[in-house]
Write a structure and sequence with these properties.
Largest sheet: 5 strands, mixed
Radius of gyration: 26 Å
Structural class: alpha/beta
CATH architecture of the largest domain: 3-Layer(aba) Sandwich
Number of strands: 12
Strand content: 5-15%
């Protein structure tokens, strides 16, 4: 009959080994608990947190709401994260370039973009709060009345020549719906092209179209806001932070929550958008709904629109 004593001996040895290792394992677990996580706040006496996003000054006035929101987010989190320093990048790179830059985190570490787009797919933390409440998906045409067709005769967007900026994420939405926009190398060039009647509609979000019209009207007196049509697609806008800066991501997340709880988020949104939205009469327009390739297909263009106010 086999001898069983060695098994008992081995078990005793194994038990002794575990007892020996327990202090080491406990120490390692304790060390792991002390590793700073992305949720831990900075010491207020540390070097100011540097926040990098693109801002071309006067050329980016249409982004004033986003810039002010970012500043308020940083201000309300001083107690937890200390001081900060804004370091705007004075260019607006293409979306693909922005995705590369925010992944690296050296030139850009904070951007805004819609989920599924190239920026949202970069190496980023996403804070899933729609800072524009869907406004950017409500698109209004800036037009040159000299070459814009009668809106009551339009049955499809394919009847319109549409333009967008080079590599704007929206371009893929139009292409997905078999519409192929003309693309301009930069935002300012779009108005030169519209003056030359190279296209008929420049669709801009309801958050920016009125500002842009006022801003460009002196230089391009012909410019008009088309009064009857609404292009719509689901296009929420989230803030995205480079994964090289986890503390900044948690700061932005916390700041947004604080602003929402205090009501300051609503006040800021209304301050920047309420009057402009009222002038657009969104619920009185003829709707052309486009499906977005960035989001699940189910349910798109089937829901009743909840017009922002």
């Amino acid at each position: 009959m086999p001898e069983e004593r060695p098994i008992v001996k081995h078990a005793s040895t194994l038990f002794a080994l575990v007892l020996t290792l327990l202090p080491t394992l406990a120490t390692q677990a304790s060390d792991a608990a002390r590793i700073p996580t992305s949720g831990q706040a900075h010491n207020a006496e540390q070097t100011p947190m540097v926040v990098r996003y693109y801002d071309r000054g006067a050329k980016d006035g249409r982004h004033a709401y986003k810039f002010e929101l970012i500043t308020k987010i940083l201000e309300v989190t001083r107690a937890e994260y200390g001081d900060y320093r804004l370091a705007p990048f004075g260019e607006e790179p293409s979306a693909k370039r922005q995705a590369l830059l925010i992944s690296e985190g050296k030139i850009l570490n904070l951007l805004w973009a819609s989920p599924g787009t190239v920026i949202a797919r970069a190496d980023v933390f996403t804070i899933p709060v729609d800072i524009l409440r869907g406004l950017l998906g409500y698109r209004i045409c800036l037009i040159n009345p000299a070459n814009f067709p009668a809106s009551d005769k339009l049955e499809s967007l394919k009847q319109l020549h549409i333009a967008q900026g080079l590599n704007w994420a929206d371009v893929e939405i139009y292409k997905h719906n078999d519409i192929h926009p003309i693309q301009a190398s930069n935002f300012e060039a779009l108005f030169e092209m519209l003056a030359a009647k190279r296209f008929e509609c420049l669709p801009l979000g309801a958050d920016e179209v009125m500002y842009t019209w006022r801003d460009q009207k002196t230089r391009f007196p012909f410019l008009a806001v088309e009064p009857d049509l609404l292009i719509y697609y689901d296009y929420p806008i989230y803030l995205h932070v480079s994964k090289q800066f986890p503390a900044l991501a948690k700061r932005v997340e916390l700041g947004l929550k604080k602003l929402q709880r205090s009501g300051e988020f609503d006040r800021l949104f209304e301050q920047h958008h309420k009057a402009n939205i009222a002038q657009l009469h969104l619920n009185q327009r003829k709707i052309f709904c486009l499906e977005s390739p960035y989001l699940p297909a189910e349910g798109q263009c089937q829901k009743r629109l909840d017009y922002p106010e």
